[in-house]
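User: Here's a structure from my thesis project, written as C-alpha cells. My advisor, Dr. K., wants to see whether a designed sequence matches the one we expressed. Can you design one independently, without my sequence as a hint?
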C-alpha cells in the first residue's frame, strides 16, 4: 500500500507513550497509515504520492473545535454557578459566600439560573 500524502523531515508529536516523536507520516485515503522515520515512510512513497517537506516544523494531533466556545467556557469557570438555585434567596446566599472570597472592587459574574425553577416564578 502506497501513501497518497507523505509529510517528511518533521517534528511529529505522536501522543504515543512508547514513541513520542517521529520524523514523518504517511497518509492514504485521508487516514494515517504509518508514523515513523523518513526512511520508513519513504518506502510507502510512489510517483503519485504528494510529498510535503516539513523542514523541521512541528505537526501535532488535530485540535478539533466542535463549536464548543472553549474560550467562553474558560471564562465561565470563574463565574458563580447558579443552576441549583430555587429562589432569589438561594442566589443571595451564594453571592454572599463569593463576596467573602473576592478581592474588593472585582466583578462577580453568575450564570445558569432559571427563574422558572424558583419557588416563585419571578425574575430576580
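Assistant: Designed independently from the structure alone:
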Amino acid at each position: 500500500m502506497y501513501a497518497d500524502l507523505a509529510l517528511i523531515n518533521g517534528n511529529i508529536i505522536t501522543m504515543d507513550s512508547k514513541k513520542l516523536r517521529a520524523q514523518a507520516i504517511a497518509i492514504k485515503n485521508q487516514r494515517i497509515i504509518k508514523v515513523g522515520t523518513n526512511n520508513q515512510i519513504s518506502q510507502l512513497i510512489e510517483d503519485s504520492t504528494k510529498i510535503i517537506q516539513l523542514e523541521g516544523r512541528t505537526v501535532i494531533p488535530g485540535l478539533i473545535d466542535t463549536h464548543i466556545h472553549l474560550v467562553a467556557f474558560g471564562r465561565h469557570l470563574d463565574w458563580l454557578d447558579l443552576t441549583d438555585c430555587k429562589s432569589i434567596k438561594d442566589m443571595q446566599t451564594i453571592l454572599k459566600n463569593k463576596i467573602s472570597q473576592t478581592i474588593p472592587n472585582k466583578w462577580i459574574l453568575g450564570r445558569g439560573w432559571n427563574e422558572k425553577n424558583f419557588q416563585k416564578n419571578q425574575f430576580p
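When you compare it with your expressed construct, this may help: The CA atoms of residues 66 and 73 lie 13 Å apart.
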